[in-house]
Amino acid sequence: MTYPASLGTRTIAGVILTADGAPAAGTVRLTRAVPLQGPADDITIQPGAHTATLDAAGAYSLTVPVSDDGDWSPSGWAYTLDVDTTAWRYRADIAIPAGPPASLADLVPTTTTAPDPASTYVTKASVGTATGPAGPLDGSALLPAGQVPDLSGTYTPRAYVGASTALAAPLLEVRFADVPGGGAVNLAEAHITIGGEPKLAAWLNEALRYRAEQQPGGFGYDHLITLIASHAAATGVLIRFERRDGTDQRVTTGGIDQDGRLQTSLYAWQAITAVDPDATGAYGEDTSTGVAGLAVRQESDDRSWLRGRIAVTSSGTSSGHVVATLPTGHAPTHSQLLSVPTTGGIAAPCEVMASTGDIVVRRTQAGAASLSFDGLSFVR
After folding, report:
1. Beta strands in 208-287 (DSSP E)
2. What is the phi/psi pair of residue 124, to 5°?
3. CA angle, corner 313, sides to 308 and 316, nearest 5?
4. pTM, rounded to two decimals
5. How far apart are CA 261 and CA 242, in angstroms?
6. Where are the strands (E) in 155-212, listed by range?
7. Residue 98 in contact with residue 66, Cβ under 8 Å?
């Protein structure tokens, strides 16, 4: 691998032999968990591992960035060393400062004292036999949940940074073999200590439902949930409600927009194209400038809204004429009688028929006019 000229590197090379002097086989790996940033070069090197496979003579060689380069950030970090060979198995965190080529024998100190804190490494062959405060392991090389030590209190989280590639599997997966009982404990809990007393502030119950509770005391009252749905001029939706239709497609039925306004429907207006379906010649869509096109829109509270106008010729309206028919799916479950304003100054009663969706005029009125459906609605 070729590194920028400003980044200091060091070669780690050597030979690993078995106890009887034969060349060992296996690998030596140095893992760096932090990204390196070179301000002068405007370059970032992502975390990764450097692995060397021992050759026939048991030799290895790795050229890696040093951990104390003052021109690169951060400085003073350490590699995780994993030696996995037929002669030697070892894991430790080691720093590789700037300097001439060196071997692991130069960097890994020899000691007869136990590390503090103590570390226990378990081979696959000893699964189920490891002992200690949190042992033994179960038959799948996993630590039973009841043996996990209490981690409550303060701690420093460790960040893992990697390439922005899609995950092949979830980082965390929780599965229940069956439905938890009503007395089951919560899946996850967050406690806040106020006045020396821990208080449950947020949790996921056994059914994975989120819960949160305001707690009086040291941190006062705050919003249980805060949603930020937009940034600068961008728009988003705080909450969106959807349902599955007959073809198992998701259909939006409402929500709360980026400004916190309740939306009872996100359906688009659907044009009413069947005007004067009986071809009387007396009715047509009013296409005057500034007039909305004939359309209907259904709300999630079972209310349908109308807009647009129907122009009536000089022959006037006749009671019983069908002036238009709503699109399929918009007919009310029972007939609705609407008082429709007209440009002639006299309201014209029109009935929206159940099942068919026909809009039937119920008053004979002479003379040309327009029937205005703008802002009219009915309950389905």
Report:
1. 210-212, 237-244, 250-257, 262-263, 270-271, 274-275, 283-285
2. -60, -35
3. 100
4. 0.45
5. 17
6. 188-194, 197-204, 210-212
7. yes
CA gap 198, 212 in Å, rounded: 15
Residue 116: partners with Cβ closer than 8 Å, 6 or more residues away: none
How long a stretch of residues is the chain? Answer: 380
- Contact between residue 208 and residue 194 where contact means Cβ atoms under 8 Å apart: no
In whole angstroms, give the CA distance from residue 275 to residue 296: 13
Q: What are phi and psi of 352, to 5 degrees?
A: -90, 115
Residue reference for tokens 């996995």: 84
CA quadruple 168, 170, 171, 173: dihedral sign: negative
Triad 149, 155, 157: Cα angle to 5°: 105
Beta pairing partners, 43: 38
The residue whose two tokens read 């967050």 is 190
Helix, strand, coil in percent for the chain, rounding step 5: 5, 35, 60
Give the β-pairing of 369-372 and 309-312: antiparallel
CB 331 within 8 A of CB 354: yes
Q: What single-letter amino acid sits at 235?
A: T
Contact 80, 93 (CB under 8 A): yes
d(CA 109, CA 327): 83
| Per-residue pLDDT tens over the stretch 74-128 | 888 889 888 888 888 888 888 899 999 988 878 876 554 544 444 444 444 445 5
Burial class (CB in 10 A: 0-12, 13-18, 19+), 267: middle
DSSP state of 84: E
Q: Which of 104-113, 131-140, 189-198, 236-245 has the lowest mean pLDDT?
A: 131-140
pLDDT of 268 over the 50 cut: yes
Looking at mean pLDDT, say which of 134-138, 150-154, 288-292 comes out highest. Answer: 288-292
